Amino acid sequence: MNVYEVPAADEITEPWWEATRTHRLLVQRCECGHHQHPPRALCTECAAMDRLGWVEASGAAVVDASTTVYRSPLPGLEPPYVVARVRLEEGPILLTNVIEVDPGAGVPIGAVVHLAWRDLPDGRALPVFRPAPGALSAAELDPGRAEDLDLPDPTNDSTGAAPVATEE
Fold first, then answer.
1. Are 123 and 101 in contact (CB under 8 A)?
2. What are the start-end ranges of the E strands in the chain?
3. Overall number of domains in the chain
4. For the segment 12-56, what is each residue's pLDDT rounded down to a tens digit?
5. Is residue 14 within a helix (H) or strand (E), and if so which, with residue range?
6. Whole-prediction pTM value?
């Protein structure tokens, strides 16, 4: 059996944790239109503290990074398993597990996944994802498809720092 250490709910995260008890994934939405996760006391777009509410996410997401863990950091987490960064249809990013896949094959960037749940002993649940019905496997996914996704460009340094010169 897998063991998961999860934080206690606080005044900010309580609505989110309560929704997980009924397998509903909530994200915060500000009146400015910005969606965010994890829950915070202020909007990360406009910094408003009094304009945040909750909306239920559709559960549809796209994988924009993934890795297979072969050496577990904690006893009780039996490897191998897939850890992925998924971008929800609403915009927020979650770090999660992708289940019902062959960990050795991995999960390709651009794979469409849907929400599933891992129940916890205290009645709460953790959002995990599984491949969408009819989703393409890593071998079938066109590598060029990643260009069609709105993913960060790993070669673009958005910090404003000058490019590093390389010698040839």
1. no
2. 26-30, 35-36, 52-56, 60-69, 81-88, 93-98, 112-119, 125-131
3. 1
4. 999 999 999 999 999 999 999 999 999 999 999 999 999 999 999
5. helix 14-20
6. 0.78
Place of tokens 């915009």: 91
Q: How far is CA 149 from CA 27, 33, 92, 115, in A?
A: 21, 21, 14, 19
Domain, as residue range, for 88: 14-139
Distance CA 129, CA 95 (A): 10
Check if the beta carbon of residue 100 is closer than 8 Å to that of residue 113.
Answer: no
Residues contacting residue 59 through CB under 8 Å, at least 6 positions apart: 25, 114, 115
Give every strand in the sheet of 26-30, ordered side by side. Answer: 35-36, 26-30, 52-56
Q: Is residue 148 in some structural domain?
A: no
- Cβ–Cβ under 8 Å, residues 109 and 138: no
Whether 32 and 48 have beta carbons less than 8 Å apart is answered as yes
Determine the Cα–Cα distance for residues 101 and 66; give it in Å rounded to an integer.
Answer: 12
With a cut of 60, say whether residue 140 has pLDDT above it.
Answer: no
3 state DSSP class of 16: helix
Residue 38: CATH number of its domain: 2.40.50.840
